[in-house]
# Entry
Amino acid sequence: MMPQEEDLTSSKKFNYVRRNIEEVEREEEGKTVTIYEYEEAKILKDDWGIYIDLTQAQADIDYLNMITEDL
# Structure
């Protein structure tokens, strides 16, 4: 099963953020198996609010850069 980009429930201590999720097929014991490879960040649940604030701030900066590019 393809992993979610954000996993907020599988751990009591951490939230996981995944990106660059790629489906890969491998041969194991004569059978083709589908697995997923990805980059993953592990963030303490206590720090999740800070992470959300930072990602929103980055999105705001990216948007302002986009609309002011041609000025």
